[in-house]
Amino acid sequence: MAMELIDGFAGAPHISGEDLAALNQGCFGDGDYVFEYGNNLAATVTNANTVQIGTGALVSKGRRSVNLAAQQLTIQSGTQGQKRNDLVVARYAKASGTNVESTTLAVVKGTPVSYGDAADPDVTANDMKLWRIPIDGITPGTPVQLFDVMKPMSELWDSVSQSVVRPSISWPGLSLDVRKAGSLVVAPFGGE
After folding, report:
1. What pLDDT digit, counting tens, does each position of 91-122 carry?
2. Taking the C-alpha atoms of 76, 78, 84 and 88 in order, what is their torsion angle to the nearest 10 degrees?
3. Are 131 and 88 in contact (CB under 8 A)?
């Protein structure tokens, strides 16, 4: 089948995760974003070995996921005299055989260094970077946000629906008249 109706009755279950991911990428783009929802997956270091990720929603590679309750994630202890960057990621997985898809939050441990600045650890193509947790010695620092927040349509609408300040502009031989916001009427030689 070359074309598939998604938003309609097809007589049998027919909508796949790939269908929805394609539509989400068309709406949101192919980037990774946190939606303005809940507390935007806020990260709070609660002790030397725990980071709490708050409520929120995201889209990554076209897959939308939501975190409805705060989650506690474990950070491995640091080492005195060393620095390390750990990353909190949203990890997408698709089980082979069953094709069951999931998103989980995980901490990716960085490599400790004795001098200089620590680098972020490598992540897979299925990981969306959310937060960097810098660790200096045994003390985790303030989480650093690594994602963009996608503004809701209600806020974006204001940026694309501005009314025109000057309703008409005239040049010799050409008259431009804007009668409604967003519509432009060109009347050559001052005519209607």
Report:
1. 999 999 998 999 999 999 999 999 999 999 99
2. 30
3. yes
Q: Which one-letter amino acid corresponds to residue 99? A: N
pTM, two decimal places:
0.76
CB 120 within 8 A of CB 88: no
DSSP H or E run through 104: strand 101-108
CA 26 vs. chain centroid, Å, equals 14
Q: Which two tokens stand for residue 3?
A: 């074309």
User: Which tokens belong to 69?
Assistant: 């309750």
**Of 140, 138, 153, 128, nearest in space to 65 by CA:** 128
CA–CA distance from 23 to each of 18, 29, 34, 99, 161 (Å)?
9, 9, 17, 19, 24
Q: At 154, list the tokens.
A: 């209600």
Burial of 75 (0-12, 13-18, 19+ CB in 10 A): buried
